[in-house]
C-alpha cells in the first residue's frame, strides 16, 4: 500500500530541485526587526549561497534587517566575506527621521553576532564613495532615498565598485506612490542588462553587471514566462513564512501591551466604581440627615407647584 509520504518521496526523486532553489532558500533569519524587506530574505540567502561574495555593500540600512540577513548567510556558509552597511542613521522623508538609538541597536547586533565580517560606515553615500575601492564588490544592495534622481545618482556613483559579473539589488521597484521613482530607473536598467524582477513585498530588482558566471544565476535571468512565474511564486511563499515568524515573535510584546491596556482599564473601572459608591454613600447619609427630614414638606410643595404650572 502506497502512503502519502511514499508519494511525496517519489515526486522529489523524479523532480530535481531547480537551480534557483537551494537549502539556503529555506533558512529563517536570526534577527527580525521592523522592515519592508522581510519577504526577500529567502532569496537573499540563496543569492549569497550561489555567488559566495568576497564583499557585500548595502546603501541604506535603517534597522538593519537586510544587512543582518546578508551577514547571517555569510556566517552560516562559513565565508570570508566583508558585509558593509552604509547609512547616515538619521532617516529621511520616506523612511522618517530618528535618533542615534537605531544606529546603536544595529551596531550592537553587528558586533555581538557577526564580528569582523560586518562593518558599519556612517555617512552620506556620495561622501563615502571613496571608502570602497572600484571593482571590489560582488553584491551591491541599493535601498536609500527612493526618488528617481536619488536612486539614479546612487547607482551611477556606486556601479563602479561592482566587479564585472557582480549583482546589484534594487528594493521598492514596485512602489509608485509618495514620489518613489525606483521603478522608473528599474525599467531603464532592466532592459539594458540581464535582470529578474520580484513583484512581492514592494518589489526587488536583480541586475547583473557583466557576464553571468554562475549557472544558477543564469537559470533566473534566462527563465521563460512559466519558469519566471514559478520562481516568483516560490519565493513569495517562502517570504510569507518570514512574515509569519515576525508576527509570532512580536506576539508576546503585543500580548504584554494588551495586558497593560486591560490592567489600566480595570484600574479605571475600579476607580469609577469607588467614586459611584462614595457618591451613593453621601446621598444616603444626606437622606438620613435632620436637614433632609426638615425640608421634606418644601420638596413636596415644590412638586405640587410644578405640576400646577404645566
From TrEMBL:
PANTHER family reported in the protein's UniProt record: RHAMNOSYL O-METHYLTRANSFERASE
Name under which the protein is recorded: Class I SAM-dependent methyltransferase
InterPro entries the UniProt entry points to: SAM-dependent_MTases_sf (IPR029063)
Keywords: Methyltransferase, Transferase
Organism from which the protein derives: Agromyces badenianii
GO cellular component: plasma membrane
GO molecular function: methyltransferase activity
BP term (GO), one: methylation
Pfam families: Methyltransf_24
Superkingdom as given in the UniProt entry: Bacteria
Transmembrane segments: none
Amino acid at each position: 500500500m502506497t502512503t502519502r509520504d511514499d508519494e511525496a518521496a517519489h515526486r522529489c526523486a523524479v523532480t530535481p530541485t531547480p537551480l534557483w532553489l537551494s537549502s539556503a532558500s529555506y533558512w529563517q533569519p536570526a534577527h527580525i526587526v521592523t522592515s519592508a524587506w522581510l519577504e526577500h530574505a529567502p532569496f537573499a540567502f540563496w543569492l549569497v549561497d550561489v555567488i559566495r561574495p568576497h564583499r557585500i555593500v548595502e546603501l541604506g540600512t535603517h534597522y538593519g534587517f537586510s544587512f543582518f540577513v546578508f551577514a547571517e548567510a555569510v556566517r552560516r556558509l562559513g565565508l570570508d566575506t566583508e558585509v558593509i552597511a552604509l547609512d547616515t542613521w538619521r532617516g529621511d522623508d520616506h523612511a522618517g527621521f530618528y535618533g542615534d538609538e537605531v544606529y546603536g541597536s544595529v551596531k550592537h547586533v553587528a558586533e555581538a553576532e557577526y564580528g569582523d565580517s560586518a562593518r558599519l560606515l556612517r555617512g552620506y553615500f556620495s561622501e563615502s564613495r571613496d571608502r570602497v575601492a572600484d571593482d571590489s564588490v560582488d553584491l551591491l544592495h541599493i535601498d536609500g532615498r527612493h526618488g528617481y534622481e536619488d536612486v539614479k545618482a546612487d547607482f551611477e556613483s556606486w556601479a563602479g565598485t561592482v566587479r564585472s559579473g557582480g549583482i546589484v539589488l534594487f528594493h521598492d521597484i514596485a512602489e509608485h506612490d509618495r514620489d518613489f521613482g525606483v521603478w522608473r530607473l528599474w525599467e531603464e536598467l532592466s532592459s539594458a542588462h540581464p535582470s529578474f524582477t520580484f513583484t512581492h513585498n514592494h518589489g526587488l530588482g536583480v541586475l547583473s553587471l557583466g557576464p553571468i558566471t554562475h549557472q544558477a544565476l543564469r537559470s533566473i535571468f534566462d527563465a521563460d514566462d512559466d519558469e519566471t512565474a514559478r520562481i516568483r511564486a516560490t519565493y513569495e511563499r517562502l517570504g510569507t513564512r518570514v512574515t509569519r515568524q515576525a508576527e509570532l515573535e512580536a506576539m508576546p510584546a503585543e500580548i504584554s501591551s494588551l495586558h497593560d491596556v486591560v490592567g489600566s482599564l480595570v484600574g479605571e473601572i475600579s476607580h469609577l466604581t469607588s467614586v459611584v459608591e462614595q457618591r451613593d454613600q453621601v446621598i444616603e447619609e444626606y437622606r438620613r440627615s435632620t436637614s433632609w427630614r426638615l425640608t421634606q414638606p418644601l420638596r413636596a410643595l415644590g412638586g405640587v407647584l410644578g405640576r400646577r404650572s404645566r
